[in-house]
Design goal:
This protein is α/β, with parallel strands linked by helices and about 280 residues long. About 35% of the residues lie in helices and about 15% in strands.
Length: about 280
């Protein structure tokens, strides 16, 4: 199975919005500067009564204006040739598994095998509830939806019978180009997230807000021999980058904020120089 980013390569993580650099321009700019991947965050909406950040304070404006990640990645696929196209992360507990399987498989087919599915359980409980998801059971729901998606990708007649996902045999094409299926990376720093990552493919811990990068690198070093790890939204610090690379991270992404095109390109230039 492809690990997605291979041996420590570099990408960009962003929340694409109607106010930021256009996805097509961003994709071309990333390939021009030698980046390997683009990961796009996922929020269908922000409930008016839950606009607080999980780290305190108000959510940044970009959360309220997020574009759909799969539409963004499809746009980028059309103007790039080698860039890996991933979700960082798709909130699968808020997405139908049959439709999501088709979206990712379609992206993989149209991009000639460049799709990467990063998934997570999410943190905004009101957002989940608006999709009919009970926050208390979202972990079990996530597990079943991942398993069901893999079943749809890999079987001509797929069926799944679980507590939260249940369907009789179905036909669903296209199948992904990648075999046995596109890489799956699980976001989150918790023990449950890591166990889920070991079960389904790879781990995508966020470095945003990490106060002890040395400890985080040591944890990655313990996990990396077993499964691939992409460090998401790492700070642009040469020492921290070196620590993650030495720990065996398969990939490292940097967060591109919601800024106009001129400033976004300037930021990408600086990051490209940082990683050589």
């Amino acid at each position: 199975m492809r690990t997605g980013l291979g041996t420590t390569k570099f990408g960009i993580h962003t929340i694409a919005t109607d106010e930021s650099i256009h996805p097509a321009r961003l994709g071309r700019a990333l390939e021009e500067r030698g980046f390997d991947a683009l990961f796009v965050a996922d929020h269908s909406h922000i409930p008016a009564g839950s606009a607080a950040s999980p780290r305190g304070g108000e959510l940044p404006r970009q959360y309220f204006r997020a574009l759909d990640p799969f539409v963004v990645l499809g746009t980028v696929a059309a103007v790039t040739e080698n860039l890996l196209l991933g979700t960082g992360v798709a909130l699968l507990v808020q997405r139908d598994p049959i439709q999501t399987a088709k979206e990712v498989a379609s992206l993989d087919f149209l991009s000639n095998g460049r799709a990467v599915l990063g998934i997570g359980a999410g943190w905004n409980r009101e957002e989940m509830r608006n999709h009919g998801t009970d926050p208390r059971t979202r972990g079990r729901l996530l597990d079943e939806r991942i398993a069901a998606i893999i079943e749809i990708w890999t079987e001509d007649q797929a069926e799944f019978h679980g507590e939260h996902v249940d369907f009789n045999p179905i036909f669903a094409w296209p199948k992904p180009v990648q075999r046995p299926h596109p890489p799956v990376y699980v976001g989150g720093q918790s023990a449950r997230a890591l166990a889920r990552a070991k079960r389904f493919g790879g781990w995508m811990p966020s470095a945003d807000g990490i106060t002890d990068p040395t400890g985080a690198a040591q944890q990655i070093a313990q996990v990396a021999p077993e499964i691939p790890v992409i460090v998401n939204a790492a700070p642009p610090d040469p020492d921290i980058i070196a620590a993650y690379r030495e720990a065996g991270a398969a990939g490292i992404t940097f967060h591109l904020p919601n800024v106009p095109e001129v400033e976004a390109l300037r930021t990408l230039d600086n990051l490209a120089r940082l990683v050589g």
